[in-house]
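Subject: mismatched residue count in predicted assembly?

I count 850 residues in my input, but I want to confirm that the predicted structure covers every chain. Input:
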Amino acid sequence: MSSRTTERDSPGLRVIEPKLMPPRVHPGTLRRARLLEMLDGDGVTGFTVLSATVGYGKTTLARSWCTERPERVIWLTLDAADDDPVRLWTHLATGVERLGEGLGSAALSCLRVRGAPVETAVDELMNGLVAYGRAVTIVLDDLHALKSEASLRSIGHAIERLPANARLLASTRSDPAIGLPRLRARRALAEVRARELAFTVDEASELVAREGIPLSAESVELLLERTEGWPAGLYLAALWLRDLDDPDRGVRAFAGSARHVGDYLTDEVLAALAPETREFLLRTSVLGRFTPQLCDAVLGREDSAAVLAELARSNMFLVALDARGEWYRYHHLFGEVLQLGLGPEAAPELRRRAAAWCRSQDMVEDAIEYSAAARDAETVGELLVTHHLEFIQSGRMLQLLGWVRWLPFELLVEYPVLPTSAAAAAALLARPELEVQRLLAVAERARRERPRAWSPYLEAGVEVTHAQMIEHGDVGAAARHGRRAVAAARAGADALTVGALASLAQALFFAGELDESRRIAVQAVERPDAPEAVNGYLVSLGLLALVDAERERAESAEAWGRQAIGLARQRFQANWWVASMAHLGLALACAATGRLDEAEREAARGEQLRRSPQPTVGHAHALLILAQVRVARSRLARAAHDLQHAQRMIAEFPDPGRLPGTAAAVEHSLAAARAHVSHREVIEDPTPAELAVLRGLAAGLSRREIGEQLYISLNTVKSHTRELYRKLGATSQAEAVARAEALGLLDRSQSPG
Amino acid sequence: MSQRYRLVVRGELGARYASAFEGMTICAHDGITEITGAVIDAAHLHSLLERIASLGLVLNSLAAVAPGPPKPPASPPGRDPASRERTRATDIRRRSG
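Triage response: the counts match. Full output below for your records.
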């Protein structure tokens, strides 16, 4: 859904700076030369993963390694909200932009195209890195926080596209689902795992010595054995032992205990702290990232800055994120364990206070997260209503959708703008039909129960979303909804008019009302605000290309098509379905003017952009256009395959509009083409060797490729081809293929798809 | 439709972990801790595993187990020795999460 404000007016959601801050390495941290050398490695592998459970010193190691290297680092600490790949890549693109002005801007523009595949933005980001030229390391900390297929897929895509000057380092608690086995097999992956990250006896001795703890060699071994080299355990132990009078005895007691290592040591370390400090730690443990001001607000005090500075200095479970002492977080493990000590009522109250402070600072995402953690649905609802446009403007559709789905039904009915915008987001993201329909049903309920809160804006939004469900095969319904959308937009939601007109024009096209469709599409493209409503604009231009092509105005069709494709490229929309109709229109225009090669290329591109896991009206239509063009090129086997695919889909649609008619027309031309070809007689049957060459020709292979596949020389391929022409009475390759097919000489099952 | 599971982690966990696994019974002994209880479905099971990971615990084993003792009767506690036993068991479960 577009809104009245343009991208200039609304900057959208802010980037969360602490996520981009590499944590400070505490001076007490051991320099682990052994591991640093491992990371230096062969310098060739682009992707390194540090994979081990919590407390193995992965973040520390990554940070130390980056500090010691000359190249620039882009650090990103991931969290669950990065399951929206737009959020994830917006932060990375911001990091790239900070390497040099303009390097990340293309990627950032891409990301604001709502619903577009994020892989386009990733590619632009990689281009930015190439343009930067110098070595750069990207660190992804806490990769295990990503669970969504969309985000993981985008990371996998990035790994494949990483330029030579960039290294990607990821730390994670669990092996990410990005095809590690495959990368391992290709030796494109370097790994450092728990076995390597565990402390050795030398490292343990060094740590103990640095802390000034007089332990015997046996005690060090005992300590190592008890902790099994777990770095978190060893650092906690050091914290505890350095204040003991008799550390050897402490170690013996520790070794003799059956308690869990972390539990035992946390008790000891906390016991040694002053009660007020313990209280401070306990109550701030619910905060993720925090500043002294946030702590003050949550705890009702004024001295958090001093407390935090002292804590950061004296031990390592408080991590400073910047040099100025503004941002901190707790070590993950420590924070988790501390929180266990809070009673069930204390935590929600603390979180609510945190949410209120974040809200006062315009930290929208954090305010929502804390409110949600405090189970405060009311506040989450309010915040979403106030800020939903920022989510949309920033392309954070998936994130918005996630929050809306979290809210209870009653709240969604009370704030109808939420289910409405979520339904539009879900449709744009091509979520399953059921999901979109559920959200629309909630919006419907809101419209019935609270008619005074229902506006033309909401009406137009809902109707456009309904109209977009045309893809699932009910053309008549889509047209009805399209008309309502246009009426509502005209009644009071001017900014949605282009989108509404486009959805109506599309429905009319598939219903077979070409002239009416054209009339509406023209209205859309002639509006001055059309270029802002880019999706609707592109769809309308594509429809004009298609209609004019069918009405045999090839020149006009071509003009519309090229305009659309040029615009799509400029606005980074060339790689998804909105551009497909322009390609299809262009294909028909080229076919009409005899440029069959180009026609097939354009039609294939249009079809490829329409592919999706579910059968859709758009894809079926694209297949029919492709089949039509292929018949003209005498690629009859492929045309038949495309036609059959389309027909299978069309059979499932409740109201497929003009598609059955179009399919019948294509079938008719296909039959005619076959008949035409089989009228002439075969002079002689081709030999099996010649048929093998023929199959290669039918598959569109070059003569050289055929020779390579069949292990025969190029000359042999050429002489077989000459024989084929003679025997089939053909004068061209297309004719030979068509003839052979028509005569059933080519085994159908071996024909290319 | 739920299934009872027993997860065993290394090391005996102290009282602070009582609230870490809501609805489950914690029992520490002999160098390990058993976390037992009804698991609603796969998502619930995965969240328990994640919790274990985020708390730095090491999972020794995970097994589905037969249903536990029958639920206490509706009669108030203290009426007869048998129901008093069961009430105590319920108390322990509540205390340790």
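Confidence is low (pLDDT under 50) at residues 77-97 of chain B. Marking this ticket as 'not a bug'.
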